[in-house]
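G.,

No rush on this.
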Amino acid sequence: MKRNYFLIELIKSPPFLIFIVLTLAIVLGVIIANHKDKTVHMKEDILYIAPKQK
């Protein structure tokens, strides 16, 4: 029975709650960042033009 109390107290503790909130924020940020369909991709066939020498 004491083990159940330990888990409940662990979940209620402020450091654990802060850890859960930060984890959720990071996961949501990654999901939102990767969800964009209109991303700019560089073309691979860009030619390099050397600057004119004086």
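When you get to it, here's the other one too:
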Amino acid sequence: MLKIIGKAATVAALAVVAVSFSTPSHAAKKKAAPAKCTAGAWQKSACVGLTRTGQRCGFDGKWYKSLVVYFDPSCAKK
């Protein structure tokens, strides 16, 4: 009887381990979600020649094109 219980416990433990590797974790799902912007935040955007444009976050939580354009040497590497 103890052998049967031991085998059942082993099979159950292996099943739990297999399921844990097959489904993505909650932390991984959380990382994949895009970050919301906070009002007043600014981020780099697209390269246009040797200049880069930016985006700013509005009070409604959406990104908008910024009027800021600046020289960025890393744009030439593309």
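Helices lie at 2-22, 26-32. The mean pLDDT is 74.

Enjoy the weekend,
O.
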